[in-house]
Amino acid sequence: MEKLTRRIRASAAAVAFVIAAALPGVASADPMRIAFGDIATVESLHLLVALERAKEKGVDIQVTYLKSEDIAAQAVVSGQADIGIGGPYALLQKVKAPIRIFMQLSKLQFYPVVNTEFYKEWKDLDGQEIAVHSRGSGTEAIMQLMADKHGIKYSNIAYVPGAEVRTGALLQGNVKATIVDSSGKRVLEDQAPGKFAFLPLGEVSATDEALFANSDYLAANSKDVETLVEAIVTTWREIAADPKSVVALREQYKLLPDATPEMIADIEPYFTEAAPNIPLNGGGADAARDDFEFYTISGALTGEAKDLKVEDFWDLTALNAVLAKTGTK
C-alpha cells in the first residue's frame, strides 16, 4: 500500500486555479484550467500525451488532480476550473448546471470483483458493502445496474477514487467487493490467482469519462477547445492503430517520471487491450444516446431515454468542427 501512496503523491501535484476570461472565437491568453477527478496513471497516459500536443499548438493548459469527479464537476460549475473530466450526467439533469459535455474520452471497461473468501456471485452481495470510484461515476452506475438486475441491495457504497487504489485495497483485505479496470484485473490475477472472482457483467456501452465545460466557456474559447479536441482525436487514432506507440510517447514527453518498472511494463498490455474500445470520433450524438439508455436504466438519469435530448447534455460544436477537418473513422 505504501507504493500506491507514493505513486498517488507523485502523480497528484496540484496546480493553482486562476480565474479566466476569454475573448470570443480566438485563442485565449489565459490558461485552460482542467480539473481531473482522478490521479495520473498509466490509464491516463494517452490523455497526458494529447494535452502536451495541445500545448505545442499554443494552448496554455493547467491540470489539477482532485480526489473525485464530484469535486472536479463542482470546480467547473463554480468557475474555479474551465474544463472537467468525468461523467456529469446526474449533475446536468438534477442540478441543471450550465455545463455541457463536448467529447467522450473513454467507454466503460470495468470488471466487478469479489474476494472469494467472502463472496462467490452477485446474490452474495445482498446487504454487503461495495466500493466504487466516485458518486455518479460509471463504476457506480454499473454496480447499481447489476444490483437491480440481480435483485439485491448493498448495505453501503464506499467511494474510493482510483482503480489501482481499489486494487491495492483488495489485495490488502481492506475491500472485499469492488470494481476495477483491466490493469487491476491483471494485477489481481498475477498476484493472487484464485483469490478473487470476476462477476459477469454482460454487454455495457456507455461513457466512462468525458470532457465537459461551462457553456459560456465553450462559446468564448472555441479555438482553444477545438485545438484540444483535435489533439485528442488524432492521438486516440494513432494509439488505437499502434498501442505500442504509447511507450515511446511517454518517453518523448517525459510523462509519469516517477512510474515504477511495474507501471511501465503495464503500458503496452493495457493499451493493447483498451485499443478496440477507444472512441475514435469523440462519441458525439451516438454516444449520448447510448448513455441515455445506460444511465436511465442504472438510475443516474431519470425519465425515458427516448425523451432525453442530446442538446440538453452535449455541445457538439467543437467536435463537429474537428471531425469536418480530420474526417471520421
UniProtKB/TrEMBL annotation:
InterPro entries, per the entry: SsuA/THI5
Domain SsuA/THI5-like residue range list: 55-244
Chief place of localization: periplasm
Protein name: ABC transporter substrate-binding protein
Organism annotation: Ferirhizobium litorale
Alphabetized Gene3D superfamilies for the sequence: Periplasmic binding protein-like II
GO CC term (a single one): periplasmic space
Keyword check for Signal: yes
